[in-house]
Design goal:
With about 60 residues, this protein is an all-alpha fold. The protein is built from three helices and no strands.
């Protein structure tokens, strides 16, 4: 966010509205972060390996 603040202050010299630019860039940074998080999560879920559990001990205890 500090990088964003510094770059926005430079845009003010270019006759652009700093608050509008800050909102645009902040929103873009959030969207990029969310997309990266989403793709990382999907990759992690896809790479999961499920194993079949032997629940015979648990089922025997419930029958008693």
């Amino acid at each position: 966010m500090e990088y964003l603040r510094d770059s926005i202050s430079l845009r003010a010299y270019g006759q652009k509205e700093p608050l509008v630019e800050y909102k645009k860039e902040g929103n873009l940074m959030f969207k990029n972060f969310f997309e990266t998080l989403n793709s990382t999560f999907v990759k992690a879920v896809i790479s999961l390996k499920l194993e079949k559990r032997d629940n015979s001990f648990e089922s025997k205890n419930f029958k008693k």
